[in-house]
């Protein structure tokens, strides 16, 4: 069974930092693009950051550019999201996503999410 397990969430004060991790199992991790999404109560899920299979390209939502960094360690089947200068509006459940696409097949998997709360 494919599993994506997020960790590292918690309560932090505005301006603080958190580092999220997502460990994947039962997939060929290095062939999947990895993404972080988040969803706040009453809001739609939004893409936060993405990184390509080898880590060569990254993309970020405008709201987190300059504050968040996505990275991956293919040897450890892990993707990270370093979150700095956190704001209350960053409060959400953060989800790890693995995505594979080719001309003939696509696959997508989701983790269960980890709560990030930014509050004073």
How would you concisely characterize the structure shown here?
The chain has about 120 residues and is mainly β. Helix content is about 0%, strand content about 55%.
How is this structure best described in words?
The model has no long low-confidence stretch (mean pLDDT 96). The chain has no helices and eleven strands. The strands form two sheets. Strands 2, 4, 5, 6, 9, 10 and 11 form a seven-stranded mixed beta sheet that branches. Strands 1-3-8-7 form a four-stranded antiparallel beta sheet, with no helix packed on it. By secondary structure, the protein is mainly beta. A hairpin with a 4-residue loop joins strand 9 and strand 10 (106-110). It is 0% helix and 53% strand. The protein has strands at 3-7, 10-12, 18-25, 33-39, 46-51, 58-60, 68-73, 78-83, 92-101, 106-110, 114-118.
Please mark out the parts with pLDDT under 50 across 5 or more consecutive residues, or reply none: none
Q: Could you spell the SSE succession in H and E letters?
A: EEEEEEEEEEE
Distance between the termini: 39 Å
**What's the rounded overall pLDDT mean?**
96
The percentage helix is: under 10%
Q: Mind describing the biggest β-sheet?
A: 7 strands, mixed
Overall form: globular
Give the beta-strand count: 11
Strand proportion, as a percent range, falls in: over 45%
Radius of gyration: 14 Å
* Count of alpha and pi helical runs: 0
Global structural class: mainly beta
Give the arrangement of secondary structure elements.
Blueprint: E1 3-7, E2 10-12, E3 18-25, E4 33-39, E5 46-51, E6 58-60, E7 68-73, E8 78-83, E9 92-101, E10 106-110, E11 114-118
Parallel strand pairs: 2-11
Antiparallel strand pairs: 1-3, 3-8, 4-5, 4-9, 5-6, 7-8, 9-10, 9-11
